[in-house]
Amino acid sequence: MSPRPWWAKLGHGSLILVATVYCLFPIYFMLVQSLKTPAEDVFGNPFIVVNPTLENFQELFQREGEVRGFVGRALRRSYPFLDWLVNTLVVFAGSVTATVVASVAAGYALGRLRPPGFQWWRRAIFATYIVPQTILFIPLYQVVSALGLDDNMLALLLIYPTMALPFCVWMLSGYFQQLPREVEEAALIEGASRAGAFFRIVLPMSRPVLVAAGIFTLGIVASDFMIASVFLLTPHNQTITAGLGTFDVALDELAAVAGVNLLAIPVVTISAVFARGFVRGLTASMVEGA
């Protein structure tokens, strides 16, 4: 096989460079803005920061009710950002855990036990993923109200997993379907129970797919704004995404950008660290007939 010509390599490298810049530029721009002073934000270069400062991040953690000063005749107020941060971490951890556990159970049942019509069940579950979220607000609100979860983080822990489950169940069931049965049969012959074979053999082998399901769920939760804003109204109960929507952007633009960074950068970092496992998990589950 002859090597590729230089112009093909150059074109391929250029496309990768353009795609990388396109993906990373929004993160870079937000980081630059969050490190600027108000004066530099108005009069400085929008793409670089000359005198970086952490004042915008410090303002986020000021005590609620503390007077931060005036801009013209407008009073700048503080926000319970620390509460938002704790709530966000709880929602992240709870949603990812619930989604992965439920997806493993449903995926194993469909892909391994293979009940009658399991392929159609998988396709039907996956089809629900394309239902627009906006048309579900009224029925979701009715369910949340009936359960007495108005303005409660438990509402998000109930809703978010349902948004990620269709894809995760479809992905995990495809992986379990193509996993060789001899793996479990060997453990059963050695005296292990089906549950023991699952937890000791199948589950450790499924680590890449579990990582893919977790990263996918994390992206769903971190990118949501509408649901958190609708179901969480009390400031101390809100997550970062919902809380940032209450900022007065005209007065607290830089602090709001700093808050976006505190949410986005950890999520991007986690996704980058587990990117290889995410790709391996998706690849392992994408089999013919899935």
Number of helices: 14
CATH architecture of the largest domain: Orthogonal Bundle
CATH class of the largest domain: Mainly Alpha
Number of domains: 2
Q: What is the helix/strand order?
A: HHHEEHHHHHHHHHHH
How much helical structure, as a percent, in the residues?
over 70%
What labels describe this entry?
290 residues, MetI-like fold, 2 domains, two-stranded antiparallel sheet
What does this structure look like?
By secondary structure, the chain is mainly α. It folds into 2 domains: 6-53, no CATH class; 81-285, MetI-like (MetI-like fold), CATH 1.10.3720.10. The protein is built from 14 helices and 2 strands; from the N terminus they run αααββααααααααααα. Strands 1-2 form a two-stranded antiparallel sheet. A hairpin with a 2-residue loop joins strand 1 (70-71) and strand 2 (74-75). Helix 4 (81-113) packs parallel to helix 7 (153-178) and helix 10 (207-222) packs antiparallel against helix 13. The longest helix has 33 residues, at 81-113.
Tell me briefly what this model is.
This protein has 290 residues and is mainly α. It is built from 14 helices and 2 strands, in the order H-H-H-E-E-H-H-H-H-H-H-H-H-H-H-H.
Describe the secondary-structure layout:
Elements: H1 6-34, H2 38-43, H3 55-60, E1 70-71, E2 74-75, H4 81-113, H5 118-127, H6 137-146, H7 153-178, H8 182-189, H9 194-205, H10 207-222, H11 226-231, H12 240-244, H13 249-273, H14 275-285
Antiparallel strand pairs: 1-2
Helix pairs in contact: 1-13, 4-7, 4-10, 5-7, 7-10, 7-14, 8-9, 10-13, 10-14
